[in-house]
What we know:
- By secondary structure, the protein is α+β, with helices and mostly antiparallel strands.
- It has 2 domains: 3-56, no CATH class; 76-143, Sporulation related repeat (Alpha-Beta Plaits), CATH 3.30.70.
- The chain is 39% helix and 27% strand.
- It has 5 helices and 6 strands.
- The protein has a 4-stranded antiparallel sheet, covered by helices on one side.
- The longest helix is centred in the first third of the chain and has 18 residues, at 3-20.
Amino acid sequence: MNTYCKYCLLCLGSILIAANTPTVANATDIDVHQQTSEDVFSNRKVYLSRSDRSSSRASSREYTFKAPDNKSITNTEQLIKARGYKVEVYGSAEDLLLRVRNIEPRAFVKGNVIQVGIFSQQDNAEDLVRQLARAGMWARIITQ
């Protein structure tokens, strides 16, 4: 196990221990009434240290958070629009990469191909393929 993994496990363990350890030294119980979005009241105990008690009353604020709606794409048209178009050139040789970078400077080698770009619009991907073809390179578009 490398040092990074040991460090991650140590941090994770520390977080779990801290989350499950109650702090009650010099603490006072107070009741808090919290109104939820459904107008239902719930009681809960909150522990405040004596040094925090005066400052928390002076600057008490109420925050209401709402989780975002869980929307999923159900329309086939939306799925088609969400596609990406990846442009690749066959080969991974250094001289080929230099030629591709003359057209698209951010191109990089990925396995045995050069990934030139990813586009949300098919027309943009086709334009890049035409530019590469004019420079004598064969490219393909992969729909994601």
